[in-house]
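tool_call: predict_structure(chain=1)
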Amino acid sequence: MNTHPFTFHGAHLHALPSGALHWPEAQLLVVSDLHLGKSARLSAVGGAQLPPYENRETLQRLDTDLAATGATRVICLGDSFDAAGLDALLPEEDLLWITRLQAGRDWTWITGNHDPAPVALAGHHRADHREGALTFRHIATTGTPGEVSGHYHPKARLSARGRSLSRPCFLCDAQRLILPAYGAYTGGLYCDSPALSSLMDADAQAILTGPRLYAIPMPRRAAHRA
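tool_result:
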């Protein structure tokens, strides 16, 4: 599998092309912002129409990553569902798929701002989770070294061979690691936005996902001179 290995607070991690994070030593796969049920929610409120199969595309991606890594533990970093209660309203086929993925695995659902907790599904339900030197939660904070989070759906632009590419990305500095959104059709926030530029240190890196992973200095907007 094409991965980008790196070390974060003593943990030897691998960024995967899908946007998942693999920690082989802990047999752990971490994903963030699946936003399952998004198309159904938007359709119900008259919003933008998304393809109705986004749940299955996301679950297939997760199925593939679990098979490739052999992970026996999973942490979902919040916003696993697009709104509270959708975990009980997914099509039966999708719910059975999730149940099959959970079978024989230690599964932790982290609370997100969209989904307080998918209580209709098995697994642990927590506000955050500590594993060795790493702390897993949905939204990045300050003063927590070794923090792994999601929420922002970071993405970055890369110019290559005269073309501009836009891809979801991991953001990493000395204190924190932010995962890209894992779900299909989730959109994203460019990492040169004020929200992310103010959060990440000056030496932060962006790891762009896709068929080939690229690690580049985190793009930032040029400062305007008076």
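agent: The chain has a mean pLDDT of 88. Proceeding to next step.
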